[in-house]
Amino acid sequence: MRASPTSESPATEARKWPVTVTVILGTVAVVLNATVVNVAIPPIMADFGMSQMAAQWLATGFMAAMTATMLASARVMERFGQRRTFEISLWVFLAACVLAAASPSGGVMIAARLLQGATAGMIQPLALVLIFDVFPDRERGKALGLYGMGVVLAPALGPAVGGVLIDWLSWRAVYLPGIPFGLAALWGARRYLVEHRSDAPLAFDWLGLLLLAVGLAALLLGLSMLAGTGGWALPGIVVGLALLAGFVWRAATAEAPLIQLQVFAYPRFALASLLAMAYGAGLYGSTYLVPLLMQGVQQFSATATGLAMMPAGLSLTVIFPLAGRLADRLPAHRLMLVGCAGFAFGMLGLAFSRPDTGFLALVLWIAFGRMALGIMMPALNIDGLRSLPAAHTQQGSGVINFARQLGGALGVNLLALLLESRIGARLEGAVDLHRVYDRAGGGRDVISALTKGFSETFMVLGLVFVLAMIAAGWMGYLHAKLRKDSAGLRR
User: Fold this and answer.
1) Which end of the chain has fewer CB atoms < 10 Å from its terminal CB, N or C?
2) Helix 267-296 crosses helix 444-490 at what angle (to 10 degrees)?
3) Domain ranges, residue 85
């Protein structure tokens, strides 16, 4: 394999900050697009007459596609080179943005979201690789701090920007803010990135990727059909589970699998992966549900909804550095217990919201839950990876990211299914939520059913994190046992 460009050479020294800015711009483009769309789901439902289960594919499809391609990104970079992978991914992403904005139907828009998610899964891992290539070890923390600020601020500001665009222009405009960032990143890539690739790339497990992508799609599609009367729900779920079982078999037998199952032989890492799935379900599930709650139950505008979500994102710019310092000083399981309990409490507050709940109260509950997730994130990554041998650290990092995205995709899908079923149970199955969001069917009975449906859904999401506290406590027990055994050996 060709050596990476040394970060001490004069040429690399001159490129390191332009490269960093370039990858930040590319990442902001895809991350901004991932979050800015959430506040647009209610008006999209109203315009296209989409059911809530169909509309959830705008979020679930994006995350499922990103989950699959994230595992493939390293091999694609080896074969096609860093610059070419970055450029092709961004061009496809920008084309998907235009397609989504001009979509004539919900199906076309979902297809565009799948393309956006697939390219986002390529760009985000590549950004970190490029930063590590051009910075020496002593300066990587500073570069990653700047990168992290961009990654955090984009989703924080995304819903507010989306809300304003919807109310001033149209929901179609929410797909456009990422385009200027993407074009700027393409200019920077052509000017500053080098065509670094492997001379002897490892064999890529195409069969494993196919089993994962098709299996995940079939499972999610089957679950979404449970809310309707379609007879393909059970076959879809069975086929999806069978293909995912095939993916696990492939990972256990292939020479170069997408995931090395050996990392799950370490109990603390296995528990960390389980917590990462819960984290993804909480982060993406709440981000999906909150706009629907505020525009359906409280009947707030898209702008008000976006503004309500912005403080939660901005608070992470304070919480992440603090949580990182605490993770270096306190046992990780304590921070994870605090984070799980705090998020569950925040979801309980949203569960008790009513049509007359004030704007400020909703802002506080949303921010409280998001800050709780921020507290547990560094501890989760650090303790999970710390439990692995150094040879497995890189693979472990990819697996934890995969687990978080998988939890997000499954979480949004299952929470949407739960919400649909609970509302339908109170409206005798006649769920026509798109009429609520175009203000044509928001009668008292419908709003009451909506309120109770959201209440039960947020309670279930909170309960998931109460159960996650068991895993966090178990990690603490294993850590204490390891320290006790180590102390006994020293004596």
Assistant:
1) C
2) 160
3) 1-192
